[in-house]
Amino acid sequence: MDERYLFLLSGVDKELPFGEIKAVLSLLHPQHKILKREGRILIAETLGSVAGEVVDRTAYTKMSAQLLFETETTEKDILSAVDISTIKDIVQSDSTILVRGVTIDGVSLRKTELEKEIGSLIIDSIPDLKVDLRNPDYTVTFISSPEKTYIGVIRKTKPKRFFYYRVAGRRPFTLPSAMQPDLSRCLVNLSRTKIGGRILDPFSGTGGIMVEAILLGYEVYGVELKKWIALGSLRNLRYYTPGLENIIVGDARKLMFRRFFDSVVTDPPYGRSTTVLGYSLTNLLEAFFFEAKEHLKDESTIALVTPEEISIEDIATDAGYRLQEYYKIRIHRSLIRKIMVYV
């Protein structure tokens, strides 16, 4: 049964986490309804299983919770909003509980005191309910923004070190230009490739996009022009996704595949140089977009990233593609990347 769920998004960017969660919800539960968005908070009507899987699959969703109450952000209103009869419908007696609050966007509350007061209110009302600070059966949360406070029971929380061991600098093989795993995973999700579909990365580099796509359950193929980089990416694939190392040395302008793909997800080899192996960047991209058409199913997508100063919009349009989504994200002080999805 569809119920209201709250999703807490990452603050890495204002729009990108929202775009990613919309894409994942549309794949997992096309019948979902987005009810409200307030900054980093999204409220949607969906299935409980989907609310948990969204946190697992996305890069930029920190938590999901079954939404029970919504109130003003004052300590008095928050305490008054906790309706024990509603809590009893979810939290079973003879179980354990924990209350944890989150404040965002500069909200100042006595968070620890509120956690204790809400916990006492619930425990005093439900027989044999106990507090467990390490592994509770239920975690009640309140998320307070300047506009509203939302109270619910957590469905799923993303582990703090979710990407830690796949960060570019910790991989067996890396390059200075390697994209980090969170953005790689987000890019895969933005492609809206059907679950279990086939993805091509024609500029696979160190294999970061491939790794994230494989971990999401896709059949993934990579092409890398330089043999020494392809061998390095093979090390990464064997380390993170053993047995699924579909990487070949080849040219993105002359793909040798006889099969069709559901999407292309890639980070083309932009650099300070104006040429790539004797070809201008413009010629390389023109050839790539036209070649990709021969290997994509109808209505397939191309999701890619470029530095802000690189313009590919006209190239993609001339090749017959339509821009579906567009984002900008600051990677560090001197690098802003554009994220584009074409159909």
Plain-language structure description:
By secondary structure, the protein is an alpha/beta fold. The protein has two domains: 3-157, 2-Layer Sandwich (VC0802-like), CATH 3.30.2130.30; 164-342, Vaccinia Virus protein VP39 (Rossmann fold, 3-Layer(aba) Sandwich), CATH 3.40.50.150. 29% of the residues lie in helices and 32% in strands. It contains ten helices and 17 strands. The chain has an eight-stranded mixed beta sheet. Helix 6 (181-190) crosses helix 7 (208-215). It starts with a strand and ends with a strand. 37% of the residues are buried. The mean pLDDT is 95.
The largest beta-sheet arranges its strands as: 2-3-1-4-8-7-5-6
Structural class: alpha/beta
Categorize the overall geometry.
elongated
Number of strands: 17
Query: Can you tell me the CATH class of the largest domain?
Result: Alpha Beta
**Low-pLDDT runs:** none
From the alpha-carbon coordinates, what is the Rg to the nearest angstrom?
Answer: 23 Å
CATH architecture of the largest domain: 3-Layer(aba) Sandwich
The largest sheet is: 8 strands, mixed
The number of distinct helices, counting runs of at least 4 residues, comes to: 10
The whole-number mean of residue pLDDT values reads: 95
How many domains, as an integer?
2
Helical content stands at 25-40%
Series of H and E elements: EHEEHEHHEHEEEHEHEHEEEEHEHEE
- At the fold tier of CATH, the topology name of the largest domain is Rossmann fold
Q: First CA to last CA: what distance?
A: 33 Å
Residue share in β-strands: 25-35%
CATH superfamily of the largest domain: Vaccinia Virus protein VP39
